[in-house]
Amino acid sequence: MSRFLTVIPVKEAVAIAEKLAVRPQKIERVPAEQSAGRVLAQDVTADRDIPGFNRSVVDGYAVRAGDTAGAGESIPALLRSAGRIAMGNDKKDLHVGTGECVYIPTGGVLPDGADAVVMLEYSEEAGDTVLVKRPVSHGENVLQRNEDFTSGEVVFRRGRRLSPQDAGVLAACGCAAVAVAGKPIVGIISTGNELVPANVVPEPGQVRDANGPMLAAWLGGYGCVPRLYGIVKDERSAFEAVIERAVLECDVVILSGGSSKDDRDMTAAVIASKGEVLVHGIAIAPGKPTIIGRIDNKPVFGLPGHPASAYVVLIAIVRPLLDALLGQEVPLLRTVNATLSENVPSQRGREEYVRVMVKDGIATPLFGKSGLLNTLVKSDGLIRIPAGYEGLEKGCGVEVILW
Ligand code: AMP
Ligand code: MG
Fold first, then answer.
1. Which end of the chain is more exposed for a tag (fewer CB within 10 A), N or C?
2. Tell me: the pLDDT tens digits for 101-144?
């Protein structure tokens, strides 16, 4: 077997990974208050006009706009007070005739006859008469019935990642519970004889497993259920047993470490023996020795061991598959545009992800060996240098994918 990887472009690798998400989407119903961060599985429509009535947006007097024409501080319009609107109550008996007004609180139902509201601040009560000191135009300070949404209108499309404010709008639309994509269960296996858990003091030659908790934390935030399978030694039988269990229990399995072609690197061989290896080697830096495979029709990824590399591959290669599993239309990536502070060279032929700090619109690259953790701490995100480029020049505009 060749010691060299056959690398394929990022785009091809992503397409291969995405195709592994063909199984029917899991769907569940959640109450609106628990819907933030979930991906809608169905369109949501307004069950009625919202608002359901013409509504005042200020405290004041409901009037006929024409009656206030020319009103001013010195010559106010004099209107006869014809009653008061109470909140939550559509008082059908109240009518604003010519020369009349009705007191109305914010959110009150605009009475028949009125077409605008004068703010309290521009009025003065004098017995049964109200002095209006400013003119209002037709529709002023009034939210029209259905101005927000019309009955039957699609308010949210399926595939949307719901936000906390969406939960409020769902409730306003009569949607106490919604259908959302079930959370993909993602198994995480850290591999390597040198690894010890975080609560163990490493002996010389040992390192703590950073990838397990890191991958789990990211996946949890992305709307998946991470399931940690701990650390597996580079021993074939142990490796096989854990992978088998994880494939059985999870929708996706992510391994880290052992993804290269060293004699100790077992990930590819084990995936091949249980299923198939579809990709071994991607033209991405960091992260070239990445594996995409399939066991029992479930996607299995082998990420490189260096935490920074594993993280980049997670975001660049695994994430699109998760979007597909979630039915998410727009990836949950926050980006910001910035200007590059210095030249960043790149090797033509591979897509390069460079960690950057961003401050005041300036992106400063953090160069460092791929094994370093500190660049993960100092950086705010990544910039992507496409495969065809030999680098990016100082002063050019870049899009930063924020962590
Ligand atoms: P590998 O991909 O197995 O060749 O590992 C590459 C480097 O990443 C080695 O220095 C490993 O010790 C390190 N590494 C592998 N897995 C982890 C992990 N889970 N956490 C931290 N470092 C790791
Ligand atoms: Mg290893």
1. N
2. 999 999 999 999 999 999 999 999 999 999 999 999 999 999 99
Separation of alpha carbons 374 and 391, rounded Å:
23
Q: pTM for the full model?
A: 0.90
Residue owning the nearest CA to atom 6 of ligand 1: 305
CATH homologous superfamily for 335-402? MoeA, C-terminal, domain IV (2.40.340.10)
C-alpha 317 to ligand 2 mean position (Å): 20
Sign of CA dihedral 24, 30, 35, 41: positive
pLDDT digits (tens, 9 = 90+) for 78-107: 999 999 999 998 777 899 999 999 999 999
Q: 308: exposed, middle or buried (C-beta count within 10 Å: 0-12, 13-18, 19+)?
A: buried
CB–CB of 156/38 below 8 Å? no
Q: Compute the radius of gyration of the chain from its Cα atoms.
A: 31
Is 258 a pocket residue for ligand 1 (Cβ < 6 Å)? yes
CA 40 to CA 27: how far, in whole Å? 9
Q: Is the CB of 126 under 6 A from ligand 1?
A: no
Render pLDDT for 24-67 as a digit per residue (tens, 0 to 9).
789 999 999 999 999 999 999 999 999 999 999 999 999 999 99
Pairing of strands 225-232, 291-295: unpaired
Q: Could you say which of 3.30.360.10, 2.170.190.11, 3.40.50.2300, 2.40.50.140 is the CATH number of the domain covering 55-143?
A: 2.170.190.11
